[in-house]
Design goal:
Shape: globular
Low-confidence stretches: 1-15
Number of domains: 1
Structural class: mainly beta
Oligomer: single chain
Mean pLDDT: 89
Length: 136
């Protein structure tokens, strides 16, 4: 029972961490984000991988949540709810709408309504030390 409580508390604390925002660079229809943004340095100096980051740019109306699935596989999701357009909040593997409670997984699939459409997802490629998000 104690282990279950500790696991739940750890999960809750991880979901309460402030997300990392990365400023992307736009060239044409591509948003470039440095792959280094997916890493942080722990208090003891070790390199720690971030599971996701939020990419932003002044010309974008909403940030893009980028989940790192594997070394070169990423899911890039537009953080606008498919129900009525509110900006989503990220809680670990889940994106949630503060307006009406819709939830989406890290693949952008609608898990609970009122939203019944998946999130807009962008194609991604990796080039040198950059993740490229294709905005069209």
């Amino acid at each position: 029972m104690l282990c279950l409580g500790i696991g739940a508390a750890s999960s809750l604390l991880n979901s309460c961490k402030m997300p990392h925002y990365a400023n992307g660079k736009i060239e044409g229809t591509k948003l470039f984000v440095a792959l280094d943004e997916f890493y942080d340095v722990s208090k003891d100096g070790k390199k720690v991988e971030r599971k996701y980051i939020l990419a932003k740019h002044d010309s974008l109306h909403f940030p893009i949540c980028i989940y790192r699935i594997s070394e070169n596989k990423f899911n890039a999701l537009w953080m606008q709810c498919s129900h009525q357009g509110a900006e989503l909040q990220v809680f670990g593997d889940t994106l949630q709408c503060p307006a009406h409670g819709s939830e989406f997984n890290q693949n952008g699939v609608a898990l609970s309504g009122p939203a019944n459409k998946n999130l807009r997802a962008f194609e991604t490629t990796v080039e040198k030390n950059n993740l490229i998000i294709h905005l069209v």
